[in-house]
């Protein structure tokens, strides 16, 4: 079995080449940079001889997964692109390139196929967890967009299928590869991890020492009864414990926590809900609440909120003194918006 180059950092790749006793291991970093930055794995281009080239090709691979679907949805800031890729075992993953304005794009990557967290508003949650993604399978999503589709990406957000902190090895490995100055060189400031509140994961991420990395918590309700209904994780890790974990997560002095709130009409959209959010945020230091209008999926919990309902809730949050950014919904028509990733049929197919 070959090893994927993009599963290594540049240093680890060079070490692996030395360990294997390959000739020209001194060229390994150049080979690595060429592959990750330009999308070509051509040992000849770094001046390796025929025998060494054969050895590298036999041991390492650099293949983009099969593209199953590419769906695009136009929007005022640019197109949203949803890409489905087939993995070696036949399972599919999805990632979404999202326009952020001024020609900048974020890539929302998956860390798992499916998810075991079971959030009631999320399509991926309905699939259950099929499996964890490896470091190479997380990183390859960026390569497939950049080199496969030829599209630029500025930021990486770990908000696709799966709870990233439930796949710590995959996440930490991918952060290292993406951040590696000898390869993709995506700075920590341009990466965001979003969690539903995986307490051990928050602690381990803090210990990993990424001082400039962004962290967001998917809150969606700030009273335990409602949050437990919407997000089963809250039964194991109630709000008091989540808050304590977030207070302890202080990677830098000016750190601002992202607080995501998916607005679901009739479920979490009252003035009291807004007050609960403010109470939860009190004591967390700098926060930025990101309000996300609910995107109905295959088996919707409720409808999408109307514009005046969104504006009213934003006003109630601001009334509480919270800084709020309203997320513009992108890609809802191609099931690429928040909470819409995943393919329940895949799970059914597997069960059959
Ligand atoms: S919202 Fe995130 S954590 Fe919750 S079920 Fe969906 S993918 Fe999993």
Summarize the structure.
With 352 residues, the chain is an alpha/beta fold.
- List each distinct ligand once: iron/sulfur cluster
Give the integer mean of the pLDDT values.
Answer: 92
The percentage helix is 25-40%
Q: What spatial order of strands do you see in the largest sheet?
A: 3-4-5-6-9-10-11-12-13-14
Q: Specify the biggest β-sheet.
A: 10 strands, mixed
Looking at CATH, the homologous superfamily of the largest domain is Aldolase class I
How many helices? The count is 12
- CATH fold name of the largest domain, please? TIM Barrel
Structural write-up:
The protein has 352 residues and is of the alpha/beta class. It has 2 domains: 59 residues; 286 residues, Alpha-Beta Barrel (TIM Barrel). Helix content is 34%, strand content 21%. It has 12 helices and 14 strands. The protein has a 10-stranded mixed β-sheet with strand order 3-4-5-6-9-10-11-12-13-14, with helices on one face. Strands 1-2 form a two-stranded parallel ribbon. Helix 4 crosses helix 5. The mean pLDDT is 92. It binds iron/sulfur cluster (SF4). Iron/sulfur cluster binds next to loops.
What descriptive keywords fit this protein?
14 strands, 352 residues, binds iron/sulfur cluster, alpha/beta, single chain, TIM Barrel, 12 helices, 10-stranded mixed beta sheet, two-stranded parallel ribbon, 2 domains
Secondary structure elements and pairings:
Elements: E1 3-4, H1 10-19, H2 28-38, H3 50-59, E2 60-61, E3 66-73, E4 80-86, E5 92-101, E6 104-108, E7 112-114, E8 129-132, H4 135-148, E9 155-158, H5 168-179, E10 191-195, H6 199-207, E11 214-218, H7 224-230, H8 233-236, H9 239-248, E12 256-263, H10 271-281, E13 286-293, H11 307-319, E14 324-326, H12 344-351
The protein binds iron/sulfur cluster.
């Amino acid at each position: 079995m070959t090893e994927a180059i993009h599963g290594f950092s540049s240093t680890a790749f060079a070490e692996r080449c030395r360990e294997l006793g390959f000739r020209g291991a001194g060229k390994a970093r150049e080979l690595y940079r060429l592959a990750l930055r330009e999308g070509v794995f051509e040992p000849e281009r770094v001046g390796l001889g025929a025998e060494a080239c054969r050895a590298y090709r036999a041991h390492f691979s650099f293949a983009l997964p099969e593209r199953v679907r590419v769906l695009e949805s136009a929007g005022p800031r640019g197109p949203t692109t949803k890409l489905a890729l087939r993995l070696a075992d036949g399972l599919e993953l999805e990632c979404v390139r999202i326009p952020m304005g001024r020609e900048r794009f974020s890539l929302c990557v998956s860390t798992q196929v499916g998810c075991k967290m079971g959030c009631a508003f999320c399509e991926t949650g309905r699939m259950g967890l099929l499996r964890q993604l490896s470091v190479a399978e997380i990183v390859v999503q960026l390569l497939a967009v950049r080199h496969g589709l030829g599209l630029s990406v500025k930021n990486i957000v770990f908000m696709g299928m799966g709870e990233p902190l439930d796949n710590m090895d995959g996440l930490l490995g991918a952060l290292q590869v993406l951040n590696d100055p000898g390869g993709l060189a995506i700075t920590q400031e341009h990466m965001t991890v979003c969690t539903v509140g995986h307490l051990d994961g928050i602690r381990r991420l803090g210990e990993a020492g990424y001082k400039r990395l962004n962290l967001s918590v998917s809150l969606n309700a700030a009273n335990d009864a409602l949050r437990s209904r919407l997000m089963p994780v809250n039964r194991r890790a109630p709000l008091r414990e989540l808050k304590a974990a977030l207070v302890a997560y202080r990677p830098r002095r000016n750190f601002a926590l992202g607080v995501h709130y998916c607005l679901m009409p009739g479920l979490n959209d009252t003035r009291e809900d807004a007050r609960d959010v403010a109470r939860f945020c009190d004591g967390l230091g700098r926060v930025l609440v990101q309000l996300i209008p609910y995107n109905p999926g295959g088996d919707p919990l409720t409808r999408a909120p109307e514009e005046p309902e969104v504006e009213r809730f934003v006003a109630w949050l601001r009334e509480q003194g919270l800084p709020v950014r309203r997320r513009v919904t992108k890609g809802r028509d191609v099931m690429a918006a928040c909470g819409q990733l995943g393919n329940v049929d895949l799970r059914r197919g597997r069960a059959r």
